[in-house]
């Protein structure tokens, strides 16, 4: 069990509603410290100007998270949930009531965090308007504020490459360790409220479907573009000869992924690599599974980060048969299933 701890949180300092739940007015989350510009849209969102303190904090957190993987990101817009309708104000009040109840249960600390949730634009608007729908595995999985990159796969881009991500407030209470393949669909006992994938360094917050619309409040929607990412005509391949494009051996790739992905995901990729070495699956199948689990953007970023090392060691080493590289491939080569 991980006990709730009080931590410095720049997001919560930026909205006066977070510092004292009892002072939140019926109108919505307080904007008293923000110079928000623009009127409420029909979808209940308010545009936040680039000069606003909240815009600066959210942008820095999002950009720094992507920058860790060498991804160049451009923030297009940040909007705030205005809670402009009676039902939305009721949802906010419900969230605050549950926060107070969790404080009492946990001895004064509800363990409220900020977390990211990636989805399509249509899903985003549906969540802000109506709440979370029917999640897979009876829970929604959110990424801690330092790891927005983990939402890149689910933040599906439109035809213009624009992606959307939600920044939510999440009531965690007392957390327990939950494995992705455990089949768990609710807290294991009344002692626990939510789950995490790692008790000490969580990369996922797990909120059960029975409480997701009470414990999670979608507060901001950020629209952005990742300008350094794999193009549609660039695919991953397994070379039979030393490639000219950047490459990385699978053991090195797995080592790099272990610093980013949840342990169980890395374990599964490692299993597929072992199956390949034992000739249980083909190289093509190995690459397909790696791409499914890690995602093209993440793999591309890791491979590119090895480019300088490859250039320095090109005369000393050559890639083994299970290395992975990216280059121009036709869509029929190693497609994502």
From TrEMBL:
GO CC field: nucleus
Location of the PARP catalytic domain: 31-245
Transmembrane helix keyword on record: no
Pfam family, one: RST
Keyword Cell wall biogenesis/degradation: no
Domain of life: Eukaryota
Segments passing through the bilayer: none
Record domain RST: where: 241-312
InterPro entries: Poly(ADP-ribose)pol_cat_dom (IPR012317), RCD1/SRO1-5 (IPR044964), RST (IPR022003)
Primary localization class, coarse: nucleus
Listed Polar residues bias regions: 27-37
Alphabetical list of Gene3D superfamilies matching this protein: 3.90.228.10
Compartment list: Nucleus
UniProtKB keywords: Developmental protein, Nucleus, Stress response
Region entry Disordered, spans: 1-37
Gene Ontology terms, MF aspect: NAD+ poly-ADP-ribosyltransferase activity
Official protein name in the record: Inactive poly [ADP-ribose] polymerase SRO5
